[in-house]
Winged helix-turn-helix transcriptional regulator
Amino acid sequence: MVVQRMSDGDVDRIFQALADATRRDIVERVMAQSLSVSALAGGYAMSFAAVQKHVAVLERAGLVTKQRRGREQLVYGNPDAVKRASALLDEYEAIWRGRIARMHDIVNDDTSGETS
């Protein structure tokens, strides 16, 4: 799998967008199926305009796309953007796991710290 490297700006937009619980919920819902902005708004105790603003933030981050169908705007999840964010988190996890493995090796090295 080839994952395209993201710019710092792209990373900032994605993680700032995902920092909000409502936006994470919108992403989860539209990944399962495309929904109109009206259908999305029906699931939250906030105004239609507020939901539109959340969708706009997600669209700027590339996590969703909107497509006009008749009088509605359908919102689609973008699995490629989620994969790129996931790949970045995997890189951070690999760094962390490498550090833990090195600490484990040091702790379990029977010869380190011993004097004969």
User: Anything to note?
Assistant: The mean pLDDT is 91.
